[in-house]
Design a protein that fits this description.
It is a single chain. This protein has 437 residues and is of the alpha+beta class. The protein folds into two domains: 197 residues, no CATH class; 193 residues, no CATH class. The protein is elongated. The protein starts with a helix and ends with a helix.
Amino acid sequence: MTFLLEIIHLGITNLRLHLLRSFLTALGIILGVGAVITMVAIGEGSKQEALMQIERLGAKNIILRSQKPPETNTQQGGQRSSFVIAYGLTRDDLEVIRTNFEDAEVIAPIKEFGGQLINGNRVQLSQAFGVTPELLSAARLRVDRGRYISPGDLAEKGMVAVIGKDVARQMFPQEDPLGQTIRVDEKSFLIVGVLAPVGLAGGSGASLIGRDLNLDVHVPITTARSVYGDTVIRRESGSFSGAEVQISEIYVVSKSRDTVIADAERLQRIIDVRHAAKNDVVSIVPYELLEEAKRTAMTWQVVLGAIAGISLLVGGIGIMNIMLATVQERTREIGIRRAVGATRHNITAQFVVETGVLSAVGGLVGVLVGVGLSVGMDRVGPWLKATFDTQTVISAEITGWSVALAFTVAVLTGLFFGIFPAIKAARQDPIVALRHD
């Protein structure tokens, strides 16, 4: 034990005598470890952000959506035409789904209606939907103020509305929207609630939903049907187009994640039978996208880790080069030590200790650098998003396994590339070494 401690002390002392050279030798390891931790943290942060956005749609949800069939988008002679076409989900479809999915937690229909939202001289395109109270849990929405649509509103066909956060901000910038009225086309609705912000705008969730939920206006579905009917008219540049859609979307919430895929397949079979060759209904299964996002994120993590690992390899090669130069420089010292009784094992141990210390210290500093950069990016990301008004989110999440793996690989890499110079030093002939200038 005393001999080992003496070897370690000797190795550390020699490194301290050449601090600048030791630092430059360990720099490759420091940058390599820092790069591994930072890249894996960015990959993990991006993965978690994407998964959270998809998770917000509900991992147990299956969304059926009416879509205009491709063949209806025809224009003759380059002229715009006026037309109304019927397509998509029907109330009969809803009843069939309810009959076949009695064990579903929630089945929530949605009906789009209206062309414009109006409040005084403020006008914007309508994103109004007739809904049922169950949509609140199915779409994982929260009410910020007031209340949501109630069963009583459905029964009474009440002229009440719950608006999204951005609708409240844009249409009522200087006043509290609760208790105010908002017009959808020619009809006025009393605002009884404001939804909490939904963090899907511009992200993976928004691309799946197809709209920004913060711009939604929700009213009782019975009101939407009785007041507006099934036809939605869009007026543009003197012409109009219309769609007769009984139900725009249906949320089906399975009883567990384990049954989501099977339920989605059953739903697809029902749609295939009832809408054969129409191509007017599409199904969205967030759980499938969640699993795909996990696989994609894992692939990117491996790629980023491999790229960063190259830095560790370069750092190890750098250590070997410096140690080989050190062996050449200390040839006479090696000869003296051999002459006074040091064995080849002693010489090898001394150089291996120096390499190990360099690698370990470089690894520890690299861990600090990597953690610091990751924390910095996580803090700077929201500031960049707010300052430059970008939807790109830069986030980093440090993982324990990446820190442990990077440090371990750094030490092992340093030792691996340090063994050859150590063996070369130990094989020096003592007589030749003593004659070396």
